[in-house]
Design brief:
Layout: E1 2-3, H1 7-24, H2 32-55, E2 64-74, E3 77-85, H3 87-110, H4 117-136, H5 140-158, H6 165-196, H7 201-208, H8 213-230, H9 239-242, H10 248-257, H11 262-269, H12 271-275, H13 278-299, H14 305-324, H15 328-358, H16 376-390, H17 396-409, H18 413-442, H19 459-480, H20 484-493, H21 507-528, H22 542-548, H23 553-599, H24 606-628
Parallel strand pairs: 1-2
Antiparallel strand pairs: 2-3
Length: about 625
């Protein structure tokens, strides 16, 4: 373990710049976007320096720590505000700062006509600072601060155009759904402290070896709930589609490449909990398998290009969550897919923003068509991301998603067949709905309005798209070459050097199966959408109707949680009023009534007082007489 003094700059630089831009107000309107972008690039430079320094160290000396100050010291709870940069967190730091800088550059042009562009960049830098704290904190409590920070940044950026009621509502929906997940993280921290007396990763890892199965399962379930909220996984996935209300760069950075992958980071960082609890692992793979199919099905029926990509994000993160539940061999493949996904999905979201930019913010793909002819760079970069997400060799997804499918089959027995089959089916549906996006948007005949004049985006927009497209082509090969990422992460997630599981199917067979189902999905989409009506058909199957309505996830939440919750709240309010307040009111009435009766004695007439005295004497005489009998 190495001590570093540079780690704090990774967080301090974007946090300072965000505060400065917000405090200066309109003074910074003319240069705030440039300043924020330079700060983001500086963070990426610091990250690169730390990465190369880490490579120059051996084994256990690679992780670097920095204590900033003593945060909490109460009784037996001692928590330092400390940062930890190891082989796992550096992957996220490079992704956050690298992709974040590209999106900053893109946003300079995309948000150029927005009156509040400075505020937008301030929020972006606040998000980067919070996300970096999330992945750099050396304890669950430090992680929790960043966790809440990115939730706040997401809320602010989804509702950035909050003058539109629908956007403000979408921001609140995302905020509430994430708070439900945050309850899980809070519970996990509390249980960990009561069981192990510490909340640091190292302390919990050491204590987990001797912990009871019940405690580990409880912590694992609570962490999974947190991951489901932040990463839009079943059953807390309903907010992600609505989050597309925010500016497109927000969708690319927060809701595709970084924040929504925080759940994958949390489970991977807590690998010692899940490896020791088969029950928790089973819950993880179940959530991942359900969500990857859930999101894929929803994606088949979305005409809004950003919502189609949001459903895709939900599904792809399902693959990552599934991989994290497959034990030591799965963590590295989950992170590999997370990194490759960061390139191709961010690139496709920026491509969607480029199309919207040229189409007067139109998002309905039925009103696109043949856009490749007028936006060739956007079409080419989006197309490379499309091939990557499908898993066509040699593009990035082939190296990461195929490995997850292979590992799922290798789980063995009925479990392996079920999980591998779900992953393979997800690949087929992914090929269908992503081909649908390509066909509706870039091919066929033009269907846009005569007033629309689509055109290629400026260089500040297409240059970041080109860089991300390059990552879509090369990142998978670079990360998998010679087991590079697997070996890099091994000290963190696979200390027992279990790099290989027993093969259920040879890798070549899995890849061929994947390519076959991908080809089937592509062919079906091309055949079905070779002609496209401007208005979505209303006479559709029950399946299509359900997919259009997000498989009724909002209706389910309303029926199962919201309405019963309203009734429960209403019942508690009535109980409080009638029982608790009623009891207090009754006591008050008794006191008031008795005091009124007693007060009537105080009449002010001497004859009344004399009569009372006589009666008192007579009562006393009677009592004495009775006692002496």
């Amino acid at each position: 373990m190495t001590t570093s003094t540079n780690l704090v700059y990774l967080i301090a630089l974007p946090l300072f710049s965000s505060a400065l831009l917000l405090l200066l107000g309109r003074i910074a309107d003319k240069w705030g976007h440039i300043f924020a972008t330079l700060i983001s690039a500086s963070v990426f430079a610091v990250a690169l320096i730390e990465f190369f320094a880490m490579q120059g160290r051996d084994g256990l000396a690679r992780p670097a720590t920095q204590k900033i100050f003593e945060w909490i010291s109460v009784g037996s709870l001692h928590v330092d505000a400390s940062l930890l940069l190891d082989q796992l967190s550096i992957c996220f730091v490079l992704l956050i700062s690298g992709v974040g800088t590209l999106i900053h550059v893109y946003s300079i042009a995309y948000m150029s006509h927005d009156h509040d562009r400075r505020r937008f960049f301030a929020y972006l830098n606040f998000f980067i600072a919070a996300m970096l704290l999330l992945v750099l904190g050396d304890s669950y409590l430090n992680l929790y601060v960043g966790w809440e920070g990115v939730g706040l940044a997401s809320y602010l950026l989804i509702g950035f155009w909050n003058q539109k009621p629908a956007y403000a509502t979408a921001a609140k929906k995302a905020f509430v759904a994430n708070r439900v997940g945050d309850v899980g993280l809070s519970l996990a921290i509390m249980i960990a402290f009561t069981q192990f007396g510490t909340v640091t990763f190292a302390g919990v890892k050491e204590g987990a070896h001797g912990a009871s199965a019940a405690a580990l399962t409880a912590i694992g379930a609570a962490l999974l709930l947190a991951a489901a909220g932040k990463s839009a996984q079943f059953p807390l996935q309903s907010w992600l589609g609505d989050a597309m209300a925010g500016p497109t760069p927000v969708s690319a950075l927060i809701h595709a490449a970084t924040m929504v992958t925080a759940g994958v980071y949390l489970i991977t960082r807590s690998n010692f909990i899940f490896d020791a609890s088969p029950t928790a692992q089973l819950m993880v793979v179940s959530v991942g398998a359900i969500t990857l199919l859930f999101g894929a099905v929803i994606g088949t029926a979305k005409d809004d290009i950003k919502k189609a990509l949001a459903a895709s994000t939900m599904s792809q993160i399902g693959y990552m969550i599934l991989a994290t539940g497959l034990g030591p061999v799965g963590y590295a493949f989950a992170i590999m897919h997370l990194l490759t996904h960061g390139f191709f999905k961010a690139g496709m979201f920026l491509g969607a923003g480029s199309v919207m930019h040229g189409m007067n913010d139109e998002v309905n793909m039925r009103r696109y068509g043949a856009i490749r002819k007028v936006m060739p760079i956007t079409a080419a970069t989006f197309g490379l991301g499309y091939l990557a997400i499908l898993g066509v060799p040699p593009f990035a997804g082939f190296y990461s998603k195929d490995k997850i499918i292979e590992t799922a089959f290798n789980a063995g027995g009925a479990k392996g067949i079920l999980l591998g089959g779900a992953a393979l089916l997800g690949a087929a549906v992914t090929a269908f709905y992503m081909t649908r996006v390509i066909v509706l948007t870039f091919t066929g005949t033009k269907r846009w309005d005569e007033n629309a004049k689509p055109h290629e985006s400026p260089i500040l927009m297409w240059a970041p798209m080109a860089v991300l497209a390059l990552g879509s082509v090369t990142s998978g090969f670079l990360l998998s070459s010679g087991g590079a990422l697997v070996n890099w992460l091994q000290p963190i997630v696979n200390e027992n050097h279990e790099n290989h599981a027993e093969e259920f199917l040879p890798p070549l067979v899995v890849s061929l199966m994947a390519l076959v189902v991908i080809a089937i999905g592509v062919a079906l989409a091309v055949f079905k959408y070779r002609t496209v009506p401007l208005v979505a058909p209303t006479n559709v199957s029950v399946f299509t109707k359900a997919a259009r309505n997000d498989l009724y996830q909002d209706s389910f939440n309303e029926a199962v949680f919201m309405r019963p919750g309203q009734k429960l709240t209403s019942g508690l309010v009535k109980t409080d009023y009638k029982v608790i307040d009623g009891l207090l009111r009754m006591i008050g009435w008794i006191i008031q009534t008795s005091s009124t009766a007693v007060r009537s004695i105080q009449s002010g007439f001497v004859r009344s007082y004399a009569l009372i005295m006589v009666l008192g004497v007579l009562a006393l005489v009677v009592m004495v007489w009775l006692v002496t009998l």
